[in-house]
Amino acid sequence: MSNVKYGADAWDARFSSDGWAYGREPNRWLEERISPLSAGKAMFAADGEGRNAVWAATKGWDSHIFDLSAVGQEKCAKLAAENDVTVTYEVDDLETRIFKPQEYDLIACSWFHVPWNVFTTHYPRMLDSLKVGGHFITEGYHTSQLEMDSGGPKSLDLLWDLDEVMAIIGEGFEILHSEVESTILDESDLHRGKANVVRIHLVKLH
Ligand SMILES: C[S@@+](CC[C@H](N)C(=O)[O-])C[C@H]1O[C@@H](n2cnc3c(N)ncnc32)[C@H](O)[C@@H]1O
User: Fold this and answer.
1) CA–CA distance, 67 with 53 (Å, rounded to integer)
2) Any long-range contacts for 14-19 (C-beta under 8 Å, 24+ apart)?
3) How do 104-110 and 41-45 pair as beta strands?
4) Helix pair 70-82, 51-58: axis angle to 10 deg
5) Which of 21, 142, 143, 150 is most buried by its number of CB atoms within 10 A?
6) pLDDT given for residue 5 in this prediction
7) At a CB cut-off of 8 Å and minimum separation 6, what does 77 contact?
8) Burial label, 88 (beta-carbon count in 10 A; 0-12, 13-18, 19+)
9) How far from the centroid of its chain's Cα atoms is residue 99's Cα?
10) Burial of residue 101, with CB atoms counted within 10 A of its CB: 0-12 exposed, 13-18 middle, 19 or more buried
11) pLDDT at 3 (0 to 100)
């Protein structure tokens, strides 16, 4: 990792308690946008304890995760077993992961913040693994979240400016949704209250 503060050890520590850091339920924005889609092969990037991938698997998706956290992998296995579904979870790093082209019908992630130099190089590589017609759905914290206490990284380098994000990932996609929104989060103690978020839904054109 380019910034050790946000490395695997920190995420393993976060996921080591008995509870669920961001809840057991899927992220609401991901649930809203994925629910109408036909199930296929999905990559839930950086899904931590696996709440989004497990929920999607209960809806018929072939759910995959890559994430830095081996503890997250164990928690996901527990959640998947409780829901009687299977999720394929690889402990892996966005920066070094090898992505196959045209593999997924859906890539989705909630709160997958990485340093900006990592984002600009590796989010486009990740999105290359979408099939033509595949969907990319994400929610992240906006730069204006810095002063708020409802979650998110306390570093502008990791927060999202919508125009900057879209300049990096928007090329070659139909934009179904691309907005900065003020919302009320109620995911867990870590993500609760008024928050400023970036919500994006893209479809790969070619
Ligand atoms: C804020 S948590 C969100 C977890 C999950 N998406 C959710 O909403 O419940 C951020 C996640 O990103 C993962 N992560 C951070 N940097 C990563 C990287 N370079 N490669 C893979 N996963 C990473 C962490 O391990 C952690 O699980």
Assistant:
1) 12
2) 15/48, 15/49, 15/69, 15/71, 15/72, 15/75, 16/71, 19/188
3) parallel
4) 30
5) 142
6) 52
7) 50, 87, 89
8) middle
9) 16
10) exposed
11) 40
Which are the contacts of 19, defined by CB distance < 8 A and separation ≥ 6? Answer: 188
- 99 burial via Cβ count (<10 Å: 0-12, 13-18, 19+): middle
Q: Name the one residue in this structure whose structure tokens are 């209960």.
A: 58
Q: Is 72 in the pocket of ligand 1 (CB under 6 A)?
A: yes
pLDDT, residue 6, reads 74
With respect to CATH, is domain 4-204 assigned 3.40.50.150?
A: yes
Cβ contacts of 46 within 8 Å, gap of 6 or more: 65, 66, 67, 68, 94, 109, 111, 112
pLDDT score of 36 = 98
Q: What is the whole-number distance in angstroms between the Cα of residue 158 and the centre of ligand 1?
A: 12
Global pTM? 0.97
Q: What is the pLDDT of residue 4?
A: 42
Domain positions in the chain are 4-204
**125: which 2 tokens?**
């590589």
Is residue 103 pLDDT above 80, yes or no?
A: yes
26 CA distance to ligand 1 middle (Å)? 14
**Which residue is associated with the tokens 């649930």?**
31
